[in-house]
Design brief:
Elements: E1 9-16, H1 25-38, E2 42-48, E3 59-63, H2 71-77, H3 81-85, E4 90-96, E5 100-102, H4 107-113, E6 117-118, E7 145-149, H5 150-157, H6 166-174, H7 179-191, H8 200-206, H9 211-217, H10 219-222, H11 231-237, E8 238-239, H12 243-249, E9 257-259, H13 266-269
Helix pairs in contact: 6-7
Length: 279
């Protein structure tokens, strides 16, 4: 059970922007879908402190410029407790990147299902870019169009749980490494006995994947009650790569949304795009 205070509001939508103050034609399509289907919900544009931009139908939520401009910077923002504290009034947060689409107003339904994290699955397929990557293949949680329970994410990031047993770390690092690497491992081994060092922040500094792969693979280590949706439900929530294959897996049912629609088989999605006068 979460130790964070009970929120007073149900769900907000978060759209992270880049350093640009303008939108591409495809980003305008993504915004059109968001406004048309989910226009009744609280919406926040997460923007750099220095960016000059006006979005009258969004509340602007500003963070330091260091969190923008690259995928790595964005990852650091989305594993920051301060980011989730900014949404602590809400039970859920829908992340909506501007390469996402939504096709219906089923947001309340997905909040009611009860998962802490759900996003498009990284399906196993010969054409999937995640094929052979164990942090991703067959897992659930692409972050570009995802629903997160805010308190559960804070419980993970504030956990007082060791990232790794010190002896296990030493066994992993020893192997046939040269003496310099072994010396470095011994120094780190000593530090791992300190809870101030051996914690979720230590792991996040070393994690070899994007932030969404961390939530999919490691969040339950720090908060055992953390619930990631199974692939079957995630396919009803959203698609990402190989959408035609996902469509067949889903009994030819369109999902709630999708991510990277213009990158992975744009032609599949084109029949479902809203015309410019639908906004």
């Amino acid at each position: 059970m979460s130790t964070n205070p009970k929120p007073s509001k149900r769900v907000a939508i978060m759209v992270p922007l880049s350093n640009r103050g303008t939108f591409t034609a495809d980003e305008e399509i993504s915004l059109r879908h968001l406004r048309y289907y989910l226009g009744a919900y609280d919406r926040f544009a997460v923007v750099p402190q220095s960016l000059k931009i006006e979005l009258p139908d969004f509340a602007l939520l500003r963070f330091e410029d260091q969190y923008f401009g690259s995928a790595a910077n964005h990852n650091r923002l989305l594993v920051s407790p301060n980011f989730y504290r900014a949404f602590a009034d809400y039970e859920f947060l829908l992340t909506y990147h501007l390469d996402a689409l939504v096709f219906s107003d089923k947001l309340q339904y997905w909040c009611d299902v009860g998962y802490d994290f759900i996003g498009p699955p990284w399906v196993s397929h010969a054409d999937a870019p995640y094929r052979g990557k164990p942090l991703y293949e067959g897992k659930v949680g692409n972050g570009g169009f995802s629903l997160k329970r805010v308190a559960a994410f804070l419980d993970v990031l504030e956990a007082r749980v060791p990232a790794i047993i010190p002896g296990e770390f030493l066994r992993q690092q020893w192997g046939s490494k040269d003496w310099r690497r072994r010396l470095k491992a011994l120094r780190e081994y000593a530090l791992l006995h300190s809870a101030e060092y051996n914690n979720v922040r230590w792991e996040l500094r070393r994690f070899r994947g994007n932030e969404d792969a961390f939530w999919a693979n490691r969040a339950a280590h720090y908060y055992p009650g953390f619930r990631v949706a199974p692939v079957e439900d995630a396919l009803r929530f959203a698609f990402e790569c190989v959408p035609s294959y996902c469509f067949e897996l889903s009994n030819r049912q369109l999902p709630f949304g999708c991510h990277a629609w213009q990158k992975y088989d744009r032609k599949f999605w084109e029949p479902y795009l809203l015309a410019p006068d639908r906004s």
